Amino acid sequence: MSIEIQGINKFFDRFQALNDINLTIPDGQLTALLGPSGSGKTTLLRIIAGLESAEQGRILFSGRDVTGLHVRDRSVGFVFQHYALFRHMTVAQNVAFGLDVLPRRERPGKPEIRQRVNGLLEMVQLDHLANRYPAQLSGGQKQRIALARAMAMRPEILLLDEPFGALDAKVRKELRRWLRSLHDELHFTSVFVTHDQEEALELSDQVVVMSNGSVEQVDSPLELYARPDSRFVFDFLGQVNVLSGTIGNGIIRQGDAWVKLPRGCDDDDGQLYLRPHEVRLTQQPTREAHLPFRIEAISVIGAEVRIELKPDGWECDELWEVGISHSDFNARKPQRGDRCYAVPEVGHLFCEHLDEPKTLNWH
Ligand code: ATP
Could you give the ipTM of this predicted complex? Predict the structure, then answer.
C-alpha cells in the first residue's frame, strides 16, 4: 500500500511543527524519516498513523483518502522505541493481544489465533520463548516481540519510531539486518523514524531528510550520499571536509590553500565539500591542489585508519578527516605532527550562483 502525504501543515499552538509536507512513500518499500531532534519526524509518523491530526493537508493510502479515519480503521501497525510489552503476559499472550481484543465478529477463532501467534514467533525466530515473560528477555528480543505483536493484525503499513533506539550498538546492527531481511520476505510498506544516519542509509530503500518541519531531500541512500542537494544534507549525512575560499582565475583559494576548478566555476565565494573517501593523502602537493596539513591524530576505525588533519597556513572550522587502508598506513607510517597534502579526487562546490552543488572530478 502506498502512502501519499499532501500539503500537511501541523501547528502546536503557534509553533509550526510541520511545514507543507508533500511526499510519496512507495508501496512495499522501507522508507526512513531522518533528521535531527525536533525536526518533526515523530509528528509526521503520528499523522500517518492517525494518532495526531493536521490543520491542513491529506493522507492517502493507495489513493484512498484516510485523513478523517480513526487509527483503528487505518490498518497500520506500530513499534516504538520502548517495547511497551505487558509485563504480566507471556510472550505468546503479548503477541496475541491485538487479536484477543478485536470485536467478536472480527476476532479469529482460538485455534487460528494460536496458529497465527506461532507463525509470528517463528518469523521473529523466538518461538522457543513463547512461554517466557518480558522480564526474562533481552532488549533485542523484546523489540522483536513488539514487532511480531504489531504484525499480528496483518497491517499493510508498519510504522516504527526509533525502534532500535534503546539498544546497544551491536544488537541494533543485528536487528537492522534482521528487519531488512524480514521486510524483503514480506514486502510490507514501512516507515521508520531515526536520527541515526548510518541506520537510515543501511536499512532503507528511500530516505526522507527532514529539518525544522520541512522535507530537505528525498532519495535512495546511494543518491543521497553521493549527491546531496544542500549543505544541511551534506553535513547531516556524515563527516565532511570543507575548504571555504574565494574563487577567481579558475581557482578556489584561502591562505596557503588552493584547488584548481574546472571551467565555468566563477563566483566570489564558495565552499568545496569533500567526503573523507574523496580525498587522497600525499607527501607533495600536485598541480591541481595545494592543501597543506599537519597530522593531528591517528586512530584505527575497524578496517580503516582515520587520520585527522589540521590546516597548515589556512583555516577551517573543523579538522579534516581522511581514511586510509591499514596497508597504506603500514607502508608509510605517518606520525602525529607530520606535514602532508590532501589531493581531492571528487568534490562538491557550493556557491551563491548555483542552485545545487556542482560535482567536480579531478581524476
Ligand atoms: P526527536 O528525534 O527528538 O523525537 P522529532 O524530529 O521526532 O524529534 P517531533 O517529536 O515530531 O520531532 O517534534 C517536532 C517539534 O514539535 C518539536 O519542536 C517538538 O517540541 C514539538 N512538539 C511535538 N509534540 C508536541 C506537543 N504535543 N505539543 C507541543 N509541541 C510539540
Answer: 0.96
